Automatic annotation (TrEMBL):
This is DUF7684 domain-containing protein. It comes from Massilia norwichensis. Residues 6-140 form the DUF7684 domain. InterPro entries: DUF7684 (IPR056101). It holds the Pfam family DUF7684.
Length: 141
């Protein structure tokens, strides 16, 4: 069995995102701890899609908006035409769930019809990082 890669990435609102192409295709958990500018949010959603994210679980502030925007970014990448199966993006939002439940779902239930994910990216939209706390919580799920 191939070992799965977990990448924690703390991204303060407005920050420039790093390259993640080497993880493609991957699943992302967006922890939206802070409100963000809508233009930056759209930029981050386009970046996720371009980097090879094919499944997004959005949790936290405005998680439904993150869901909608990443779905739109995925359609935009193909000029709102038919998206090939291997590029289809699945997005969910988890407004009324505990973070631990989202982690459990990501590890045990999230599935894509065209991909078996080798990597999970936890994208922590927050001014202050909490890598150890989040990684321990994810590990325990």
């Amino acid at each position: 069995m191939q070992k799965k890669i977990l990448t924690y990435l703390q991204l303060p609102p407005g920050a420039e995102p790093p390259k993640l192409d080497h993880l493609s295709p991957f699943l992302a958990i967006v922890l939206a701890e802070e409100e963000v500018d809508e233009l930056w949010q759209a930029e981050i959603c386009r970046w996720l899609v371009a980097a090879g994210c094919r499944y997004v679980l959005a949790w936290g502030k405005d998680c439904e908006a993150w869901h909608d925007m990443v779905e739109d970014a995925a359609l935009e990448a193909f000029d709102y035409e038919d998206v090939p199966d291997e590029h289809k993006l699945i997005a969910t939002w988890h407004e009324d769930e505990e973070r631990e439940e989202v982690f459990w779902f990501a590890k045990h239930r999230a599935a894509h019809p065209s991909h078996s994910f080798k990597a999970t990216v936890i994208l922590d939209i927050a001014s202050v990082g909490r890598k150890d706390e989040i990684e321990q919580e994810y590990s325990a799920a």
